[in-house]
Amino acid sequence: MLRLSLLWGFALMLMPALLIQGWWVRKRAIRMGPADGPSRGFAAEEKNQSRKRDGATVSSETTNQPLKLLGLGDSVIAGVGLASTELTVTARLADRLNQYLGRAIDWRILGEDGAKISDTQRLLAATESGSFDWIVVSVGVNDVTGLTSLVRWQQGLLGLISEIRSRSSHATVVFLQLPPMGRFEMIPQPLEQCSAFGRRCCDKY
Questions:
Q1: What's the whole-model pTM score?
Q2: How far is Cα 74 from Cα 144, in angstroms, rounded to an integer?
Q3: For the purposes of burial, counting CB atoms within 10 Å of the CB of 6, is it exposed (0-12), middle (13-18) or buried (19 or more)?
Q4: Which of 110, 149, 164, 168 is the most exposed place for a label (fewest CB within 10 A)?
Q5: What is the DSSP letter of 84?
Q6: What are the sequence ranges of the domains in the chain?
Q7: CATH architecture entry for 47-204
């Protein structure tokens, strides 16, 4: 913890250079919008559908209500750069769950381009209450590039998990791993190393 604090303090000393480099990278970066299409979808259950799972056959005749899937977070969830919301990680996962389980999947996208951990908390708090069976979360990249402090990141992450659990206590929650930001060719030094360090902090906590 002391080592992380020292490294974070060193990054703060480089703040003027990092801000200039960050502005330069944002100016050069190609901006793409979120995917077109509805933010909600439904993978229907087929009549008399059956699937093999762990060596056993599961029949759809024994199923009841649709299972609910929520995609929550940043541009990955919003589908930035994709042509349609049908191609997003949430919709594609819904299709795979539908095929694997033989169950209807009611999926929803709750994502925002550029969302930090605080924005993700706001998105979840603003939506109507309701429980989900699976929740896929993508968050952290914008906190790294936006230089969210380690303390604020930890507090935000714990708050987000608490809010998720209060709404969907039995849900399977999956946090997507951050990309290897230190390998982004477009990011110059020392911003590249600071981004890689920020990613490690987010992954650890």
A1: 0.73
A2: 13
A3: exposed
A4: 149
A5: B
A6: 47-204
A7: 3-Layer(aba) Sandwich (3.40)
